[in-house]
Design brief:
One of its GO terms (molecular function) is metal ion binding. Keywords: Isomerase, Metal-binding, NAD, NADP, Nucleotide-binding, Potassium. It catalyses: (6R)-NADHX = (6S)-NADHX; (6R)-NADPHX = (6S)-NADPHX. Its EC number is 5.1.99.6. The protein contains seven helices and seven strands, in the order ααβαβαββαββααβ. The chain is an alpha/beta fold. It has one domain: YjeF N-terminal domain (Rossmann fold). The protein has a seven-stranded parallel beta sheet, sandwiched between helices. Helix 5 links the parallel strand 4 and strand 5. Helix 2 crosses helix 3 and helix 3 runs parallel beside helix 4. The two termini are 20 Å apart. The protein binds ligand NPW and potassium ion. Potassium ion binds next to strand 4 and strand 5.
Length: 217
């Protein structure tokens, strides 16, 4: 794809809004984002194993539910940890509901999984909506992902590692260290500035189908 401009979280929201108004619905963008991230993970971890998806309450968590669905269909043994409780945004709720039809273990906020024994872990806790410091639940979830990585799991960050601010690259104490970050449509400053990029690992930009014309916002 073309090397697009780096955009802020707010610009990204406006680009997504323009795409939605042009007919590429938000839920389709979430589907495209989750599938693109899953494809990159599957390419790096081709043998199905145990996958942990740590999901937040926003649309970043929604992308994580898409990944969980794709992984389960591909034969992975998938657990989803709702680290901050049930999702709150409509599209994330829809994708959460679709998991009920699959052999996916869903853990509530109070059921923290073990950090060991995962081939891969997906950080779908916070994306562009994160700002400020981590609260206790976020600290626990980011800590778990970092311990899973220390125990050998390959960590994929969805859009950006949780605990980082997309616009300033500022890293909250305890932020996630990823092996791979798949970002969507356009890079944000966190992907290009050294302070943020150090947490991202490899950065891949995925096309989620947004038409070029929608970037003139
Ligand atoms: N828009 C689209 O169509 C598409 C968007 N896409 C995806 O959506 C992502 C953006 O989603 P989003 O805007 O829902 O925000 P998101 O990153 O999930 O975070 C919100 C959550 O974070 C929380 N939170 C924030 N700060 C916090 C703190 N300090 N400590 C603790 N919690 C904190 C906040 O909680 P609250 O403050 O409301 O209690 C809320 O629950 C984007 O990165 C991409 O992955 C793709 O699917 C493509 C289509
Ligand atoms: K994330």
């Amino acid at each position: 794809m073309k090397n697009k401009a780096v955009v802020t979280a707010d610009q990204m929201k406006r680009i997504e809004q323009a795409a939605n108004e042009a007919g590429l619905l938000y839920i389709q963008m979430m589907e495209n984002a989750g599938r693109a991230a899953w494809a990159e993970l599957a390419a790096r971890c081709p043998a199905p194993g145990r996958l942990l998806v740590v999901a937040g309450k926003g649309n970043n968590g929604g992308d994580g539910f898409v990944i969980a669905r794709m992984a389960a269909k591909a034969g992975w043994k998938v657990s989803v940890w709702l680290a901050e409780g049930e999702p709150k945004t409509p599209d994330a709720c829809t994708n959460r509901a679709w998991l009920a039809e699959l052999p996916v273990t869903v853990l509530s906020a109070g059921e923290q999984p073990d950090a060991r024994g995962w081939q891969a872990a997906v950080d779908a806790l916070y994306g562009t909506g994160f700002h400020g410091a981590l609260r206790p639940a976020g600290q626990a979830a980011c800590g778990l992902l970092n311990r899973a990585r220390a125990s050998g799991a390959f960590v994929l960050a969805v859009d950006l590692p949780s605990g980082l601010c997309a616009d300033t690259s500022e890293a909250a104490e305890g932020a996630v260290q990823a092996d791979l970050t798949v970002c969507f449509d356009s890079r944000k400053p966190v992907h290009t500035e050294p302070q943020g990029a150090a947490y991202c690992g490899e950065v891949l930009l995925a096309d989620i189908g947004i038409p070029e014309a929608c970037h003139q916002v």
